[in-house]
Amino acid sequence: MKAHAIQRAQRSDIGEIEGLLKGSDLPVQGATAHLHHFFVARDGRSLAGVIGLEQYGEEGLLRSLAVSESCRSKGIGNALYLRLLDEARSLGIRRLVLLTTTAEAYFSARGFRKVDRGTITGALRHSAEFTGACPESASCMELVL
Question: Shortest CA distance to 87 belongs to which of 145, 11, 2, 28?
């Protein structure tokens, strides 16, 4: 497996990030505002993958895990996920929450459990993903760190 360097996203990455998110049918709303907690992987000069975190006190919203089609099944998604977990822990986040329409099995295999969306309260409930970027039909999942 070729190693892909994971690095913190830069402002100059936003166009590629939004392109990958849109191509993966993921929302882009709110991404720019939280770019300081996004990570990218590159395959040469091309964006291979992205993952983002929104912090709301001791809670975090995992968002925007996407890997380009040509780079899937190479461990990039998992490497990005592990980097995000390190970031969340370093920020004092105790619970990660996510919304997904397609990756429930992926995140279940990583310890997330499905929860009722109505149990999410506080600032996290007012994030772009909870206020319209993700459909009501999306599965809500959590991981206690």
Answer: 145
The structural domains of the chain, ordered by start, are: 6-144 (3.40.630.30)
Q: Both tokens of residue 76?
A: 């990039």
Cα 72 to Cα 37, 64, 65, 81, 85: the distances in Å are 22, 15, 12, 14, 20
Distances (CA, A) of 47 to 8, 29, 36: 13, 19, 17
- Kindly list the averaged pLDDT for each block of 10 residues, start to end, along the chain of length 145: 77 94 88 91 90 94 91 90 96 94 92 92 83 78 95
Four-residue CA torsion sign, 112, 32, 124, 126: negative
User: How much is the pTM?
Assistant: 0.90
Burial class, 125, CB count within 10 angstroms (exposed 0-12 / middle 13-18 / buried 19+) = middle
